[in-house]
Amino acid sequence: MVLQDFICPACRTAVSTAASAGTSAVSCPGCGRTVAPARETVPGLAGFSGSSGAAATDETLVAPIGPPRSTEFPFLAPPQRPDELGRLGSFRVLGRIGAGGMGAVFRAEDPGLRRLVALKVMLPQFAGHPTARARFLREARAQAAVEHNHIVAIYQVGEEGGVPFITMPLLKGESLADALAATPTFAVEESVRVAREVAEGLAAAHAAGLVHRDIKPANVWLEGPSRHVKVLDFGLARAGADGDPADAVTVPGAIVGTPAYMSPEQATGEPVDARTDLFSLGVVLYQMLTGRQPFTGKNTPATLTAVASHTPAGPAELNRAVPTALSTLTMRLLSKAPADRPASAGEVVEALREVAAGAGRTELPPPEPKRSETRTPVVAPRNAGRGLQVGAGVALVVLAVLVVAVVNRGRDGTEPPAKPSDESPVAVAPPGEAPRPAPGPESVEKLAPHFDDRTAAQWAIKLGGAVRFDDGDTDTKNPADLPKGAFRLTGLSLVGERVTDADLARFNGCANLTRLDLPHSAITDAGLANFKACKNLTHLDLTAARVTDAGLACFDGCKNLTQLTLDETTITGSGLVHFKNCAGLRGLSLGGCSRVTDAGLEHVKGLKNLTALDLNSTQVTDAGLAYFKECIDLKELNLARTGVTATGLAVCKDFKRLLIVYLDRTPTTDVGLAHLMTGDGLSSIFLRGTKVTKAGVAAFSRAQPSCRVEWEGGVIEPK
Question: Are 333 and 200 in a shared domain?
Fold first, then answer.
């Protein structure tokens, strides 16, 4: 008898049934309901993420229906019963749950105790490496050292035939990552409960001297119908200063973890303590409350830069149901400086309990706050000794009341102070000039001073930015490198939350800019209005800026644009209408613009010269993608986490020049994958979380042998 696994639709418990039973109904061991076998397979327990090295994936691996062939795992002893895949020591291995970089997780039975377990093994090809073996055993010791209701227990650590293994409870339910994929935004009460239970588990780990270092949704398990939290995967955990030196298998200064969930100090390879886990917990809590990650980037360096320099909008700004106290606590957890975060996981537990008690008394969600009342100004002094050079040691200051007046710091070359809200701008001045009041949003139009390129360039550099002049392509960050004579300011780059509307008043009247980069800044529409005369722009980057559709109107008429980046903004189709005449646009990036729909994309359907299109996490469907069917020069297409189906991907048959395609977490199937087999030089395709099958991927690889494929079954390298 061969067992097959499926998921109970009522309680998400893994159910085993004989293959010979066909579609006969069975009783779910989790909830007792009578359910029929389905095609949905069992999610992996902890996979092997986090234990395989520095930038562990946050994906959850899914086993194929039915057990794999025993030849896939030659280290297993031959099966002794029909329902077995093989044996490891005394354990009956019944099927594979998941696999990762260095090992695999199996569903197994302990014959002595007659209980099902999760059997995590290190593959033989890695077990011979002393560092890898030490990391694997360290995970087991770390978890076994902590006995707590919210940390997965370790039953046994052993070795059989040179293969190290760990046995753990066979969990029922799903990972938080899978839950968020199905429901991106949790209810406030559920978010608070999950975060509190994670914090309780961390408090126990920290009390034992362990720092997890890889808290993320994939390492948080929601157990059974009650969704009881279990913290998984201590593969990156390290002991404190008094720990065993033999456990220090990670090279000092190495960056390990998952970039989007790392603390700034972890991202730069600096020593960490328990507060790094609190930052990661803050990222997870933020994601549950808002449906989005607070720190994102197109690649790992960009993500690490965002972690170090970007301060996201408070959860209450994005979700009106979030109480002010919870929003404030979340932002404290995300403080750049460890000293500004809560002192311990226990403190977080108590704070979340107070929030839960307060939330229970709240009948209506709080009114939507004004940005000026919720902004979190940040002082970010430059530190040349830091690896990222983006102010990873930023101090986060939370305003409890609206600041109505500030005292301007002297003009002695020191960094400018944190800015208050736009309703009360500070006095600003370049070196050698007396300060004068900076205009507020209502006075930008009236001021319109004579624009001086040199003064503006010096001011930009003083803010930590970079400039270009006379249409050059080199960034200048030192005032001494500016031309001695007259020049035109043609490029401006100001990155980070410290850049505000008041700062941008210095650029009111500039007209020669061809490149404007203001990513992850605190600017609003009022600050953006200072650039309304810049009609010759070719590059515009407003990633995560706090601008709206109305603010983008100042770029109406910028027909020379070739690259437009609006990632992680709140714009809609009403904002895109201002770029409908940019016929020369080559790159359009709207990743994370969750309010962009098919109707909005219709405004830019006339853009036919695009070579890069990023619609990641938008509301685009097949109909919206069809607006770009004439973009036959596309080289990069990102449709991850969208509703585009196999039907919609039919337009890709004409995209012969595609190099990279992202389809993660889309409903595409083998049929959709077939539409991408006709290109000339596809180099990479990402298919995790799709409905493609092993047969479909194999057919694609035969048609595109030079393409690297990432899917649920692993990675297929180009031939």
Answer: yes
Q: Where are the beta strands (DSSP E) in 123-219?
A: 156-160, 163-169, 173-175, 210-211
pLDDT at position 409: 35
Residue type, 50: G
* Token representation of residue 535: 């009609």
Both 228 and 326 in a single domain? yes
Signed CA dihedral, 664, 665, 666, 667: sign only: positive
Paired residues of 715 in beta bridges: 710
β 34-35/86-88 pair status: unpaired
User: Can you tell me the distance from the alpha carbon of 188 to that of 346, in angstroms, rounded to the nearest whole number?
Assistant: 20
Q: Which of 316, 349, 379 delimits the end of a domain?
A: 379
Q: Where residue 70 sits, what CATH number does that domain have?
A: 3.30.200.20
User: Taking the complete model, does pTM exceed 0.70, yes or no?
Assistant: no
Residues in the chain: 719
Q: Look at residues 169, 184, 213 and tell me which one is the last residue of a structural domain.
A: 169
DSSP codes of every residue in 513-549: -SEEE-TT----HHHHGGGTT-TT-SEEE-TT----T
Q: Is 214 part of the annotated catalytic residue set?
A: yes
Selecting among 5, 214, 277, 525, the annotated active-site residue is 214
139-165 pLDDT tens trace: 677 677 788 889 988 888 888 888 889
How far apart are the C-alpha atoms of 569 and 685, rounded to whole Å?
26
> What is the C-alpha separation between 558 and 556, in angstroms, rounded?
6
